[in-house]
From TrEMBL:
Pfam families to which the protein is assigned, alphabetical: SMC_N
Compartments where located: Cytoplasm
Cross-referenced SUPFAM superfamilies: P-loop containing nucleoside triphosphate hydrolases (SSF52540)
A cellular component annotation (GO) from this entry: cytoplasm
Lipoprotein found in the keyword field: no
Native source organism of the sequence: Luteibacter rhizovicinus
Function: The RecF protein is involved in DNA metabolism; it is required for DNA replication and normal SOS inducibility. RecF binds preferentially to single-stranded, linear DNA. It also seems to bind ATP.
GO biological process, alphabetically ordered: DNA replication; DNA synthesis involved in DNA repair; double-strand break repair; SOS response
Protein name: DNA replication and repair protein RecF
Family named by the database record: Belongs to the RecF family.
Length: 360
C-alpha cells in the first residue's frame, strides 16, 4: 500500500498542506521544529488512530485552530484506491472511509498500515508492557480478522468485572460469574492468537537482529500471557476474585500480557545499551512490516523519523538496504537528506514553518 496524496490541516503547526507522494522514498528536510515529524504523524494517525508521540489526540490540534483534519488517497497492491479521513471538530473525532462515515475508528485503521521508527521507539524494548501489547495487537489486527471481535468482547467484560469489583464487598456470584465466563472465553482466544503471532513474527525479527546486532548472539522472543501457565483463565479469575475486589481491578488476563526480547549474550534487557535498544526495536518494527507483507501480500508504509540522529551511518545504510530492494513506500525526516540516501532514488520535500514544498 502507498499514499498517493496526503492533505493535512490544523495538525500541530501544519495548515493547508497538500502532498503528492512518490511510491518509493520520500524525504522531508528542514530545521528542528519546522513540522517534519507532524507529516509522519498524519500518516500514522490514519493507521493507529493516535500519534506515536506521547499525549492524547486532543493535543494534536494546532494552537488557535478549531478543527483538525487528515485526508489521504491510499493505493493498494491490487490497484484499489481507498479515500481515508480523520477529523476533529467541536471536541469530537470522526473517521471516514471511501466517502462514508466510519462507525468506529477501527474501520479506518483497518484500511491503512503504517509502521514508524522514531526517537521514542526504544520504549518497545525498555518501556512498560503496554507498549509491547499495543505492538502485538496492532499487528494481529491487520493479519487476523477475528482478533478485533475477541478484543472488544474482552474489553467490555473487563470493564464490567472491574465495575463490580469497585462496588465494595464481595461481588455476588450471579452478577460477576457471567462476566468472568465472557472474560475467560474471549481472553483465551486473544492469548492463542498472540502466541501464534509471536511464533510467526520471531523468524523475521531474528533474521534482522542477527545482521544488526550479531555481537549479542541468538535472539529469543518469549511471550508472557498475563496469568499462570497451565491454568485456565476462568479458574484463575474465580480464584482471584476476592483479592481483586480488595484492589478494585482485575489483576490477571491478557490485559496484563507482555513479551520479552532477550539475547544469548544479553539475557536481561538491562544488559542492552540505549543504542542496542534502538536497533532491537528497529528489528522488531521492520520484522513486523515483513510479516505483514508475507501475510497480506503488500508492505505497510514505513516511516523513519529523524533517521540520521537516531542511527550512525553504518546502521542508516543497513536500514536503507533493507528497504530499497522491496516495493515499499518510505517517509523519512531529517534536517538534511541522510547520508545513506544521498545516492538513492528519492523525492525530497522541504518543510519550513509548517509549509511543505517539493524540491526539484
Amino acid at each position: 500500500m502507498k499514499f498517493e496524496t496526503l492533505r493535512i490541516a490544523g495538525l500541530r503547526c501544519l495548515e493547508g498542506v497538500s502532498l503528492t507522494l512518490a511510491p518509493g522514498i520520500n524525504v522531508f528536510t528542514g530545521a528542528n521544529g519546522a513540522g517534519k515529524t507532524s507529516v509522519l504523524e498524519a500518516a500514522y494517525l490514519l493507521s493507529h488512530g493516535r500519534s506515536f508521540r506521547s499525549g492524547s489526540r486532543d493535543v494534536l490540534l494546532k494552537r488557535g485552530a478549531s478543527a483538525l483534519s487528515v485526508f489521504a488517497e491510499l493505493r493498494m497492491q491490487d490497484g484499489r484506491l481507498h479515500r481515508l479521513g480523520l477529523g476533529r471538530e467541536s471536541g469530537r473525532w470522526q473517521a471516514r472511509v471511501d466517502g462514508e462515515t466510519a462507525a468506529t475508528l477501527g474501520a479506518l485503521v483497518q484500511s491503512c498500515a503504517v509502521v514508524c521508527f522514531e526517537p521514542g521507539s526504544h520504549a518497545l524494548i525498555a518501556g512498560p508492557s503496554e507498549e509491547r501489547r499495543r505492538f502485538l495487537d496492532w499487528g494481529l489486527f491487520h493479519v487476523e480478522h477475528s482478533f478485533l471481535l475477541a478484543w472488544r468482547r474482552y474489553q467490555r467484560a473487563l470493564k464490567q468485572r472491574n465495575a463490580l469489583l469497585r462496588a465494595g464487598g464481595a461481588p455476588p456470584d450471579n452478577l460477576i460469574a457471567p462476566w468472568e465466563a465472557e472474560l475467560a472465553q474471549s481472553g483465551e482466544i486473544i492469548d492463542a492468537q498472540r502466541k501464534a503471532y509471536i511464533t510467526a513474527l520471531s523468524p523475521h525479527i531474528d533474521a534482522l537482529a542477527q545482521t544488526t546486532l550479531p555481537e549479542l548472539g541468538a535472539l529469543n522472543l518469549r511471550y508472557k500471557r498475563g496469568w499462570d501457565e497451565g491454568m485456565d483463565l476462568a479458574e484463575v479469575l474465580a480464584e482471584r476474585r476476592y483479592r481483586d475486589a480488595s484492589r478494585g481491578h482485575t489483576t490477571v488476563g491478557p490485559h496484563r500480557a507482555d513479551f520479552v526480547v532477550s539475547f544469548e549474550h544479553a539475557p536481561l534487557r538491562e544488559h542492552l545499551s540505549r543504542g542496542q535498544e534502538k536497533l532491537c526495536a528497529l528489528a522488531c518494527l521492520i520484522g513486523q512490516a515483513a510479516h505483514h507483507a508475507e501475510a497480506r501480500g503488500e508492505w505497510p508504509v514505513v516511516c523513519l523519523d529523524d533517521l540520521a540522529s537516531e542511527l550512525d551511518r553504518t546502521h542508516q545504510e543497513w536500514v536503507v538496504a533493507q528497504l530499497l530492494d522491496r516495493d515499499i513506500q518510505v517517509l523519512v525526516t531529517g534536517t538534511e537528506v541522510p547520508h545513506a540516501l544521498l545516492s538513492a532514488p528519492k523525492t525530497v520535500f522541504h518543510v519550513e514553518q509548517g509549509n511543505v514544498a517539493g524540491l526539484l
